[in-house]
Amino acid sequence: MTNTSDRDPGHSLFSGQSSPASLSSTIVPLPSSAYNASFARRQQARQAIRPALELVRSTDAELGVAEKAEAAPKKPVLFGSRALIYKQDPSVTEIGIRKVLLRGPIQPGPRNARISLQGMPSVAPNTMNDFIQAPETPAFDAVHAFAIVHQTLTKCQRALGSPIRWQWNTTKNLEPINVFPHAGETMNAFYSRSDKSLEFFFFKQPGTPAPAPVIFTCRSFDIVAHETGHAVLDSLKPQWIAADALNPQTGALHEAFGDIVAIFLALAQLDQVEALIVQTKGDLHNKTFLSDMAEQFGLALGRDNGLRNADNDKRMSEVSSEVHDLSQVFTGGIYDILADMFEFERNIEREDEAATLLRVADYLFGLLLRAILQAPAQDATFADVVNQMLAISATDGKPVEHRNFTRNQFVRREVVGSPALLSADFQGEELQAVQHAHLQIQPTGLQNRSACCGTMRHRQYSGAHIVLDEELAALRDRGIGGSVAQKVPAKAAE
């Protein structure tokens, strides 16, 4: 059976008249009764030969042949559901809408043990346990948000080689994160630790006549991955998110990590990597959907592209202490290292460029995540993470050129200084952070997060309680009136 939709992954398939039922048969063809009958016969045939295989294994064992099957680890049951998602933002029509396969037992909602959809009608899978829904519908938004959160968590867990607990999880509390795709109407999206939630809002595009287009942040691959990145990093480094950290670079690492997760999640999918190679002809510094973040949101605000551009040349001396502005130095450094490593590793005589980029990106993201784990638990700086990346790369036995790229890019961006010439190979020394007097916290003792995403401006991380406590302390110590003023000596009262 031919699936014609695979030849056109864009929006032309969705005219607004197709129902989810018709989409199921068009995009993911349902098997015919004849196919089901043939499949059942083949399964019976496979079952029939298994006793013969066991007999062969027993005979081999009696003859002293090593029975490798006994020592081999048991393979997991490969549950999986297909879903439709925007592979980038809805405005990136070159990538469009495509199918993805989500591994694991996924229940109606959709939900699993780690992620639970909230605030919307439950979406049920079809008879093949797939979640195929019509775009621009609430059901599609629910599935899309779940899928990107699922992919982000999976990507981070694979990079570390172990499960990641949400910040509130303990051995006795394994509550999932609650995802609200339609949390309300405002220009916002955020992660909330206290509510154990990821919340995505929608808004009418400013400056357009009625009926103004509605922008749904849950439909943005970048935004959902970014906010989920905050949740993951809060699990690994719970003290990094607070606005009262002594260095604004700590908050900037949080904001940068969200953008970096979105970039490397895109690079974890071979179809997107291939599209990127074609779009840029293998030069990651050409105009690309990868480096632009949240394109639809940015266009809605009247910008030329997305909210941020990861392919930037910002230096520490050129940015302010505002956390979002500062974060772009670190994000840009990681993006440049990716481009450098890809150029170094590329060998088109031996390996397809897309396969090379997939491999390089997978390693670099894992290197970054491991470096973050080894960085200080609080008040971490860019230099802390950079030095850990250099040390881990050496332990991994990677070529010295990898460490040269990391050192050189962050020296160029004035994050660290190098005692050696950048033309010389890195020798393993710890690099010292470059001090910038203008990159300080505010007089209140809090970071400036005025241009950050909803997570970093959320009141539970804002340090508002610190300011409130200071006001109350001042009122107790220096207040006039009330019980303080009434404590007047008797003679003065006369």
Produce a short descriptive summary.
This protein has 494 residues and is an alpha+beta fold. It has helices spanning 20-27, 33-62, 68-71, 138-160, 221-236, 248-266, 270-280, 295-300, 323-345, 353-374, 382-395, 400-412, 464-478, 482-486, 490-493, and strands at residues 80-86, 97-103, 115-117, 177-180, 189-192, 197-200, 202-204, 214-216, 292-293, 308-309, 416-417, 432-433.
Per CATH, the class of the largest domain reads Mainly Alpha
Write down how many β-strands occur, each being a DSSP E stretch of 2 or more residues. 12
Mean pLDDT: 84
Tell me the overall shape: globular
H and E order: HHHEEEHEEEEEHHHEHEHHHHEEHHH
CATH superfamily of the largest domain: Neutral Protease Domain 2
Cα end-to-end separation: 103 Å
**Class derived from helix and strand content:** alpha+beta
| Total discrete domains | 4
Name of the CATH architecture of the largest domain: Orthogonal Bundle
| Oligomer kind | single chain
List the total number of helices: 15
Determine Rg (CA atoms, Å): 27 Å
Query: What summary fits the major beta sheet?
Result: 4 strands, mixed
Can you walk me through this structure?
By secondary structure, the chain is α+β, with helices and mostly antiparallel strands. The chain folds into four domains: 4-71, no CATH class; 76-236, Elastase, domain 1 (Roll), CATH 3.10.170; 240-454, Neutral Protease, domain 2 (Orthogonal Bundle); 459-493. It contains 15 helices and twelve strands. Helix 4 links the parallel strand 3 and strand 4. The longest helix is centred in the N-terminal third of the chain and has 30 residues, at 33-62.
